[in-house]
Design goal:
Strand content: 5-15%
Mean pLDDT: 77
Distance between the termini: 62 Å
Oligomer: single chain
Number of helices: 4
Low-confidence stretches: none
Order of helices and strands: HHHEEEEH
Length: about 140
């Protein structure tokens, strides 16, 4: 992680949480921009860690890892022989109460309900299985 050097005035401005803060918008914007730019510059080690994580875990559209050059990758390296790397995983809403594709999918398995065989928001197979479990 690169070192960031701030003046006392800049540190005071960051630490002060007051609606009456007397700091011009352009000075504050410049301060924040410089701080995030300094923090966003990944080290060679961070780049290597993300590269290893992508080789081991990346699945396009299912498991994605942000680019550290964008300043948004999160890495936690401890004493162990590895590191945790924050990844995005795809949460499929099919068959859930969050389904955005309408009510034409089974709430259990996500199968189409267009054949008209199901009921109660479930396809024929899931509805039959539920009915058999109740008996």
């Amino acid at each position: 992680m690169p070192h960031v050097y701030l003046s006392n005035e800049e540190i005071d401005a960051i630490l002060r949480v007051s609606p009456g803060l007397d700091l011009s918008k352009s000075v504050a914007d410049d301060l924040v921009r410089r701080l995030f730019k300094a923090l966003a510059e990944p080290s060679e080690r961070e780049l290597a860690i993300v590269s290893i994580a992508r080789e081991q875990h990346h699945v396009d559209g299912e498991v994605e890892i942000d680019d550290p050059a964008d300043g948004i990758a999160t890495i936690s390296e401890g004493d162990g022989n590895g590191a945790y790397v924050l990844a995005w995983v795809w949460a499929d809403f099919s068959g859930t109460e969050l389904n955005k594709e309408g009510d034409d999918r089974c709430s259990e398995c996500g199968a189409s309900l267009e054949d008209g065989e199901g009921y109660d928001g479930k396809c024929g197979n899931c509805a039959d299985r539920e009915e058999n479990e109740d008996e």
